[in-house]
Amino acid sequence: MNSDDPLLRILACPLDKGPLTLPAGQDVLYNPRLQLRYPIVDGIPQLLPSSGSRVSPEEHERYVSSSD
Question: Torsion over CA of 51, 52, 53 and 59, rounded to 10 degrees?
Answer without folding.
Answer: 130
